[in-house]
Amino acid sequence: MSEEAEEHDCDCPPEGLPAYMGTFADLMSLLMCFFVLLLSFSEMDALKYKMVVKSLDNAFGVQRQVAANEIPKGTSIIAQEFSPGEPRPTPLKEVRQDTQDDSRDDLKIKMNADEIEKEQAKQQAKNIAEEVEKFKEALESEIAEGLISIESQLNRIVIRIREKGSFQSGDAKLNTNFEPILDKIREVLLKTDGGIAVAGHTDNIPINTPRYRSNWELSSSRATSVVHELLKTGEMTPGRFVIEGYADVQPLTTNDTVANRATNRRVEIIVLKSAVKDEVIRSIDRLNQEYDSIKGVITDI
Hints:
Blueprint: H1 3-9, H2 20-41, H3 46-60, E1 109-112, H4 113-138, H5 140-144, E2 148-153, E3 156-162, H6 179-190, E4 195-201, H7 215-230, E5 241-245, H8 258-264, E6 266-272, H9 276-290, E7 294-297
Parallel strand pairs: 1-7, 4-5
Antiparallel strand pairs: 2-3, 3-6, 4-6
Helix pairs in contact: 4-9
């Protein structure tokens, strides 16, 4: 048999692609168009996308935040404390990993709050002493007459109004001739800051009148009369004031003589300055908010 006859009798596949490939190609094209349309009609959820990215970042160590109860990774098992590694040059121009927030607690700078507190206490005491001298200069004549006295107590300035010339015995109505003195006190208080507590005090002799059932009512009523007089012009802010009545429970001296009882009958205008420790705490809190790497410790004196 000749070679041409052998080639003719060979069971070979037909030339070209199989017939089903046309249908398969059409189907793939239609599927691709379908998914392209689905993608074009869909909306991306940015929040879920960020959550997925953050999850991947945590898994692969990018911008990792180490929790406080989690063992720091990448440190020596011999080291007792976590410390940053030495910076070394890298061919990359970007940082691939940066430990943040919680892990910085171990790197915080400890501030000596005791020294800050002492320094601020000295400065505050100096400022209060200067203000007391200004008060005394402005009210020099009234102090000389024994109508008022001024002193400093820690973080406050006390203007003590004696009953002499200010109130009638057993009454909370201010004497008219004492109002100019309160006008001068108002001018002094306008030049200083801080809260103002007005406290009334009496002696230990009981009182029971139709208007005042006890020394508690008399002491608080006298303090109220002083506050009303100070606020009369509208120059002072009412929110600065606090009214207190102590009756005879906080005497300056014993109530065994007439002179001592007269000393205990008084109204005190107390200018309250911020406590030094409160200032230090606020200062350190402010620094901690501005700089995560600063930490302060407050120690009670």
